[in-house]
Amino acid sequence: QVQLVESGGGLVQPGGSLRLSCAASGSIFSINTMGWYRQAPGNQRELVAVIISDGSTNYADSVKGRFTISRDSARNTVYLQMNSLKPEDTGVYYCNAHGLGYLGTDFDTWGQGTQVTVSS
Length: 120
Known about the structure:
By secondary structure, the protein is mostly beta strands. The protein is elongated, with a radius of gyration of 14 Å.
């Protein structure tokens, strides 16, 4: 079993910043990818940013240049630094991790989500 615990969401004014954190724990042998997704009311869940074990990253076009994903592999933790926030960034942000457990089985785990609201 692998668990993800997210933190760092909240209410921020347009142009402000927030930093999200997601820590993975449990039966983890290795993590291949960790990423952030978001879901706004009435919309489907969408990719925000992902980081792979080799350090390569991928971002949604809408957040490029404003958001930065980083990873502390020793702590199985991923961060999302969000700058220049816009009202359209509002939504529930979910952490995802994909990797291999100690029993040799793949895991693909989601966090419980953290609310980000950008509003004046």
